[in-house]
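Dear colleague,

Thank you for sharing your sequence with our group. We've completed the structure prediction you requested, and as agreed, I am returning the results in plain text so they can be pasted directly into your records. Please verify that the sequence below matches your submission; if there's any discrepancy, let me know and we will rerun it promptly.
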Amino acid sequence: MAWGERHATRILLVLSLLALAAFLATIPLPHADGMLIGSDGIGYYMYVRSIALDGDIDFANEAEALNAAKYIDIYRTPTGRISNQYALGTPLLWLPFFLAAHLLSLGLRAMGLPVPADGYGYIYQAAVCVGSIVYGSCAVLLMHRTARRLFPGTALAACVALFLATNFAYYLIAEPSMAHMCSVFAASLLVYLWVSLRPLTAPARCLTIGLAGGLVGLVRQPDAVLLLMPTLDALLARGTVREKGKRMAAVAAGFFAIFWAQMLVWYILNGSPFLSGYLLKGDQGFVWGAPRLLDVLFSTRHGLFLWHPVLLIGFAGLALLARQNPAMGGLLLAGFAAQTYVIAAWSAWWQGDAFGGRMFMATLPIFAIGLAAFLQRVRARPVLATASLAAIAVLVVWNALFMAQYRLGYISRGGPYTPCANSLGGRRKCWRRLSSAWRNDLRRPPRCSHPSFRAQS
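Please find the predicted structure tokens below.
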């Protein structure tokens, strides 16, 4: 018997609508500097406003109006332009929502309401955040459809677990101006098309895969390594050397048919179509020979499995799948390994201020399959199935408490979390103060009195 699969789409849509309602409910609350966007979201927002209203990628006016230097690196590039190291894909995905907000603002002004139509107001900022929530909702639906093709009885349970027990819910609700929802959407689309179109023997199918991979790279360049999975699959599929060459050419053509836009932006801003803004100053980059593999997975400083243990269950499922279906399971593990290596080799492997391993969010479609595989394996054993679901339920509650503590500043956003945060007594103490914090002062996140519990942002 399938676990709720009959109403899977409805259940996932309800979760997404609840997330949207939670975000909308926070809009009237006080926000830092009176903005709904922040952190990296400032850089993405500068793109979408400049493209939509100014018709260029000159960010001088946006940087000044948004006080961007307070949040992100702002300097003059070799071409004399204001820098913007962030990827182009998220702003392009936001564009329809931003334009809709502009039309709404113009309409409200025509009705005599004092609504700004300059691209900076709450209507615009809320619109792009809602856009991220929409893409995140589409991502979880795509993840479910992908996992259901392989494990029709447990796909919903796996996706609900990832929705509630990882950082997916946090970046969907609390920080939708970041690129992560668009990143998960692009990666979910890639994995869905790959699983749906197998075997990748026809060049047209490979072209489609390349186009999806181009979108993944356009949203977040490091995520483009996920294209390795379908590319290897197409290369290993039966065929002559010439046929395989055509497949690889089709993948490459599809990828660059999308990714050329990012290369053009790099050329305009940085003077080279191959020079990312992240590498422009030389103060950050990749250390390929000394990746921090264990740290990026198990460190208290945003280690993926330590912050979100439910993913360990998904990893176990991928290992089980690799034994049952070596081609699919092996390729999924290869994709995760490639992404892990890239993140671990990055100079800021802890991923800055982050709720967990935020750079790993594009691998959630991989873990959806792995978690569904694990649950499928234990479903026939009632005791194991009950224990697994109970463990996931505990991890959902744990993640919710963790998210609340992080959001209110009880846990360091940039550094490792502290002994006080990890202790049961510390969690109880901070949870008891959670409600009073919201009642007494919504504007300033409270800090635990324990000296080891102070945030280190």
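Summary note from our side: Residues 207 and 250 are 5 Å apart (CA to CA).

Kind regards,
the structure core
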